[in-house]
Design goal:
This protein has three helices and two strands; from the N terminus they run H-H-H-E-E. By secondary structure, the protein is mainly alpha-helical. Strands 1-2 form a two-stranded antiparallel ribbon. The model has no long low-confidence stretch (mean pLDDT 97).
């Protein structure tokens, strides 16, 4: 899957998919065949951090 390059669009897409379809970031990355580190790093640069207990970036 081609993920958005814009951090705000990525933030919105990932959180929506985590909320609606996936129990964890690992499950999302495995199913969509995307690199977890790339997502985490991109969103970290934009000021977001993944919270595994809440299964969302904030």
């Amino acid at each position: 899957m081609e993920l958005p390059k814009d951090p705000m669009m990525l933030f919105s897409l990932i959180n929506m998919k985590l909320r609606d379809f996936y129990p964890s970031l690992d499950a999302l990355c495995s199913d969509l065949n995307v690199n977890k580190e790339d997502i985490v790093n991109c969103l970290k640069e934009a000021g977001f951090e993944y919270n595994p207990e809440q299964n969302k970036f904030w």
